[in-house]
Design goal:
By secondary structure, this protein is mainly α. 58% of the residues lie in helices and 1% in strands.
Length: 416
């Protein structure tokens, strides 16, 4: 598999985004048609949320542990506007596997050697924690699947909500630390750009990849590990979207960023693995989610539909937290001193909210799973949109790995 191909598709996943509708990125064109399709009102609407949750339910009930582990690297520490830039692209190429690589290479071509060295140093410094974030997801994924399969520890009646929330808070604290470190380095580099570099960046438009020329690869991959290469390409792409975007673009997020343990990315994005210039369907989540709901009985469907109301307050608080974190990180762009402690505290709270959402999903999906008939299972299996050649996982982000060692997950069931 071509390493460049691995990089570009791994961060390209399709999702409905959440943005504050009244605000738009301030630099570069915002194609009105695409931008207006992505707003907080649309994304948190009952219909959009229900179909996204239903898609996760379909992926979880027809998938396996390996598929659940798949996670695009761009979903980590995502406060730099890349998601919004991708979703509103005038060319509608944001979900193509070449999108990230094109803007990353363009950005790298503008940076001088000293600036690129700083990105490489950041990648090496974060390599272990980036891996640790992926590995720390595995106990939650394992516990959620154990709960579905009825593999409960002795003395437990199911998942322990508080244990899940506490563990998720620790995971997101690490996510916040990674984001803070990235913002500090990237902000310093962006403030050091000279007039020639700023002029070159001005020709690359936010939200319009038609203005990004095709240029050769800019990194010598032989000089770094695969993980560091992925990190540096991610930094480069996000540096551009951060510089050319806005606070509102940074706040924007994909609903599938939350409750990311149920195989939605594995079902939708993994089949793009190894394919150049491949575009992932933008309607897959909605269409498959609706088909999943149509397969359920009224009682089963009610259990899924209720999740929309049960997560509503958590989602509203998540939007506020993301805005607060993004605001603090943008201090680095202005040459100000950002504060790490508030970012980490907000990140932990973010993790608590996401942990509660994940717990709600896991318990609701398991309840439905335990009541499916053989006929329903067969129909749901037919809805799974993946190719026979798609990798099975488990994955470290988007890279297939051998079976990982996972600590005992009994503590997530309230058993020590």
């Amino acid at each position: 598999m071509n390493l460049k191909t691995t990089l570009v598709w791994s961060v390209s996943s399709v999702c409905v985004g959440i943005a504050l509708a009244q605000d738009r990125p301030q630099r570069g064109p915002n194609p009105r048609g695409n931008a207006e399709r992505y707003s907080i009102e649309q994304a948190v609407s009952d219909q959009a949320q229900l179909r996204t949750i239903a898609f996760d339910g379909l992926a979880f009930l027809t998938g396996d542990f390996g598929s659940d582990t798949f996670l695009p690297p761009g979903k980590v520490s995502d406060y730099f506007g890349f998601q919004y830039m991708r979703d509103i692209d005038a060319k509608e190429g944001g979900h193509n596997t070449s999108f990230l690589t094109r803007i990353a290479d363009n950005m790298l071509s503008i940076l001088n050697d000293g600036q690129k060295v700083q990105l490489l140093a950041l990648g090496k410094a974060q390599e272990n924690d980036i891996r640790r974030f992926a590995e720390k997801r595995l106990p939650l994924i394992k516990a959620f699947r154990r709960n579905l399969e009825g593999d409960l520890p002795a003395g437990s009646k199911g998942l322990d909500k508080n244990a899940v929330i506490r563990y998720s808070a620790e995971l997101y604290a690490l996510d916040g630390l990674l984001a803070f470190q990235r913002a500090e380095v990237m902000g310093g580099i962006l403030r050091s750009l000279d007039k020639r570099q700023k002029s070159a960046l001005g020709k690359l438009k936010f939200g319009d990849s038609r203005t990004w020329p095709e240029i050769p690869e800019q990194l010598d991959k032989r000089s770094m590990s695969h993980e560091v290469n992925v990190a540096v390409m991610t930094y480069a792409s996000e540096m551009f979207s951060w510089y050319a975007g806005s606070l509102e673009a940074d706040t924007y997020f994909c609903p599938e960023r939350h409750g990311m343990y149920f195989g939605g990315f594995g079902m939708k994005t993994a089949p793009a693995m190894g394919k150049r210039d491949y575009s992932i369907s933008t309607s897959l989540t909605s269409d498959s989610g609706e088909a999943f709901l149509d397969t359920l009985t009224p009682v089963q469907r009610k259990g899924i539909a209720e999740l929309v109301d049960r997560q509503r307050e958590d989602l509203a608080e998540i939007v506020k937290i993301r805005r607060a974190i993004a605001t603090e990180l943008r201090r680095f762009l202005k040459g100000e001193t950002a504060r790490q402690d508030p970012v980490l505290a907000l990140s932990k709270r973010y993790g608590e909210l996401d942990g509660e959402i994940a717990y709600l999903y896991a318990t609701a999906f398991a309840k439905v799973g335990h009541t499916l008939t053989a006929q329903q299972r067969e129909k749901l299996a037919g809805l799974r949109a993946s190719e026979p050649s798609a990798p099975k996982g488990p994955f470290l982000y988007s890279q297939p790995i051998s079976s990982p060692k996972i600590e005992s997950t009994d503590f997530l069931f309230g058993v020590k």
